Amino acid sequence: MTTSDFTTSILVDQTPAEAFRAINNVQGWWSEEVEGGTTKLHDEFHYHFKDVHIARMKLIEVIPDKKVVWLVVDNYFNFVKDQSEWINTKISFELSRKDNKTEIHFTHHGLVPSHECYDICHDAWTNYIQSSLRNLIATGKGEPNPKEGGFNQALLEEYLTNKNH
Predict the structure, then answer these.
(1) Per residue in 108-140, pLDDT tens?
(2) CA 88, CA 19: separation in Å to the nearest integer?
(3) Is the model more confident about 140 or about 155?
(4) With contact defined as beta carbons under 8 Å apart, do 106 and 7 qualify?
(5) Which is nearest to 40 in space by CA: 67, 20, 62?
(6) Which CATH superfamily is domain 6-163 in?
(7) How confident is the model at residue 1, as a pLDDT?
(8) pTM of the predicted model, to two decimals?
(9) What single DSSP character describes residue 40?
């Protein structure tokens, strides 16, 4: 079966448990601008990158050392017309053993080539998974977006106010 959802995979020497811990350390590989829980079922966290991207994620499946799935509860990009592109999509990390290594299969279910954000999101996810997450797992140091001085609550409130009008 072929799918147009965005996927990428990496192989690492570390155990599934080590990879699972790194995936759940979202601040260590995606962004230091993450607030909220990122490890337990039903945890929710906010992410933002400047005024470019704001998102709220909810962990809807957590199987230790095997799988993590986030639901995109809310999302905003300042560069697309259709603000619903990511909303209700799912982001999954599936871990398995392969030739004495751990394979991490990343899928953003619902991120498809017809979306306006696809090219930018494809490149961003590829970098975060292939480089930053891989490095966090292998060396303990990822390459997340740096802290911008705390979560921009005013920006989030402005977005939510404008969204509800």
Answers:
(1) 999 999 999 999 999 999 999 999 999 999 999
(2) 26
(3) 140
(4) yes
(5) 62
(6) START domain (3.30.530.20)
(7) 44
(8) 0.89
(9) S
Please report the DSSP string for 56-98 in residue order.
EEEEEEEETTTEEEEEEEEEEETT-S-TTSSTT-EEEEEEEEE
Number of CB atoms found within 10 A of residue 44's CB: 16
Please identify which residue in the block is written with the tokens 């802290």. 147
List, for residues 33-50, the tens digit of each pLDDT value. 899 999 999 999 999 888
Tokens read off for 136: 């966090």
DSSP state at residue 116: T
**In sequence order, what DSSP letters do the residues of 6-38 get, joined into one string?**
EEEEEEESS-HHHHHHHHH-HHHHTBS-EEE--
Q: Tell me the three state secondary structure of residue 143.
A: coil
Question: d(Cα 133, Cα 10) in Å, to the nearest integer?
Answer: 9
Domain ranges for the chain: 6-163
Q: How far apart are CA 162 and CA 165, in angstroms?
A: 5
Measured between alpha carbons, how far is 165 from 153 in angstroms, rounded to an integer?
A: 19
pLDDT at 157 (0 to 100): 64
What's the first-to-final CA gap in the chain, in angstroms? 41
